[in-house]
Amino acid sequence: MKIAFLGPKATFTDIAVREMFPSDEGIPYMTIPDCLDAVMKNEVDACVVPLENALEGSVNITLDYLIHEITLPILAEVTAPIRQHLMVHPQNKDNWKNIETIYSHSHAIAQCHKFLHQNCRGVQRVSVTSTAAAAKHVFDHPAEQAAAIANELAAEEYGLAVVAPDIHDFDFNHTRFIVLAKEASKFSNSPMQMVGNKTSLMITLPADDRSGALHQVLSAFAWRKLNLSKIESRPTKTGLGNYFFIIDVEMAMDQVLIPGAIAELEALGCSVNVLGSYPYYQVKQQKGVK
């Protein structure tokens, strides 16, 4: 298969693709919407995009594009550990503490706030489309006193020197990636060991905005003993105070419990869309710095 991912090569999404689809072809795109559009235009068979980070929360562009712009089912999820390193062009290795600019994705910069606050005060921080794009920029501009925050694969891919490894604020730094495709048959079983199953639902509350509506929604899952691993609100973009809810149920779609909950919610006046029922996987450990 051809798998679109947030590029260029050596992003964290690229790592997830290599783990999930070791014998398929990964094709880098420069933005998350570009990855999703590539599936819709049949340029690729599937795409892998980031959905949520343990430190910075949801990747809103993924959620919003998936909800408002396109219709693609979630076919699988993989969670991968994230290790952020500060890297420079090899010719600037000895004087890296004199860097004037740090490039990275906005989430990566936020994940390394403590290190940057303590060691890089006054250094300009520039957000780019991905951590790998930051690494590529630093390699392409050796005369610039610049550094990138990225992973070890990016350092290897673009020939950079890691001068400060593991600069993220917390050790438990993981990102959830989702696999999307038009057809379930496009997703072949991953060689990774499956951890479990999820079903993701998008729920819009009744238009009358009555008191206790969200409590009634949650009760439909609670009395059926359906475990929810995530509840998140996002604006419907139809006016202030209007939201829908993304809910992850920790089980595969069955013939009784989840359909029963959906029917109860619809009877209450809610709108319910199934975003996907899928297996999820875990990358054991991202390789460290040599």
UniProtKB/TrEMBL annotation:
Reaction it catalyzes: prephenate + H(+) = 3-phenylpyruvate + CO2 + H2O
Top EC class for this record: lyase
UniProt GO MF annotations: prephenate dehydratase activity
Annotated Gene3D superfamilies: 3.30.70.260, Periplasmic binding protein-like II
Keywords for this protein: Amino-acid biosynthesis, Aromatic amino acid biosynthesis, Lyase, Phenylalanine biosynthesis
An individual GO BP term: L-phenylalanine biosynthetic process
Segments forming domain ACT: 202-279
One Pfam assignment: ACT
Residue intervals of the Prephenate dehydratase domain: 2-182
EC number annotated for this UniProt entry: 4.2.1.51
Signal peptide per UniProt: none
Pathway info: Amino-acid biosynthesis; L-phenylalanine biosynthesis; phenylpyruvate from prephenate: step 1/1
Keyword Amino-acid biosynthesis: yes
Site for Essential for prephenate dehydratase activity, residues: 175
GO cellular component terms, A-Z: cytoplasm
NCBIfam families: PRK11898.1
Protein name, entry field: Prephenate dehydratase
Taxonomic lineage from the root: Bacteria, Bacillati, Bacillota, Bacilli, Bacillales
